[in-house]
Amino acid sequence: MKSLWEQTSQQAAFGKLEKDIKTDVLIIGGGMAGVLCAYMLHHAGVNYVLTEAETIGSGVTKNTTAKITVQHGLIYDQLIRRFGLNRAWQYWKANEVALNRYRKLCRNISCDFEEKDSYVYSRTDRAKIEREIRALEKIGGHGEFTEHLPLPFPVAGAVRLPHQAQFHPLKFLATIAKDLHIYEHTPVRELLGTTAVTDHGRIQAGKIIVTTHFPFLNRHGSYFIKLYQHRSYVIALKNAPTVKGMYVDEAQKGLSFRNYKDLLFIGGGGHRTGKQGGNWRELREFSQRYYPHASEAHHWATQDCMTLDGVPYIGPYSANTPHLYVAAGFNKWGMTSAMAAALLLSDLVVEHKNPYAEIFSPSRTILHPQLAINGFEAVTHLLIPASPRCPHMGCALQWNPHEHTWDCPCHGSRFTAEGRLIDNPATEDLKL
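^ thats the sequence. predicted structure below, dont judge the formating
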């Protein structure tokens, strides 16, 4: 089940760490966020290294649908009500800067970069769409109302944002990574202050950036209670209509659509990791009903790290770890958020003030019913007398019959049927 991106690109190989080294900044995690952090520090002349447990782009990055947009659902009305106008503007501006940085970089990179209009639609609630348009106007954005979309069902309305983008993420990654200081097949087993312990050497760093999708340190920041993970599914169809733009349903159970070359991507079927959901069955039933002449060319799944308030955690790992930084919880908008994180964190580690840091602060107050839900999920699956159990915090794993994996409903770690680790925050294989 390789994604389209894996099947149509090739990454450069990097060696593994085999000795003790020193560096000013260590980046742990070689997905899009980590590699972009390394790229920014490299071009700023900062002494850094990046370690990746497997190979760069081999985690969540390879499974993205690769939209680059400031439009993250109907988020701006929510942000204004939850955080106020200034912080909502910070979120908008940070992502606008991120989009523009991609646009600039991709001028010289062959990565199928295309500008596309972005749409968030509602099938039932026109008022939600109208509120989002008003919210965008308040922060200096401009969203257009439309109710005529090239989708096979009617909608109550949609917010259109022009001049957003999409690309081939692994082609992009291969280009920007080739001159960077990267060690692959070098998992960090432990942090002793700012010294990272790997299998074949220690890295003594001045500062550390953790970009491991789900943060792997439990004793700082309480990320195990502030985050959860969500799976979603994609099919790519041949002989399906061209929809031109990028379309996302505002409803959690809705579908997304976009074209890549001659293929139509349909995304959806999502569920919390370790639970049941529609998966590819839902997408295939939809395609058979509405696109009966199309055929499936590819299918894959991804896993998103979700925050409780819809905003990523980017900044100091915790109040008690002054030399440790984190980027996590991109909420299904990983490509744009990865660039925003890299720009913010590269400023913070060299002690430059960043004007958008406040909205992303990992230490912000979380008052949300999801805290109670997350806590209940953890306690419930800790008490279930079942095996196997996740080596991360001991939760009972659930068998996923559609992907043939063991999935953790507490924090989203996943394992093959044989027990090999697929997704963190667990850091070791199952002992079956």
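The chain has eleven helices and 21 strands.
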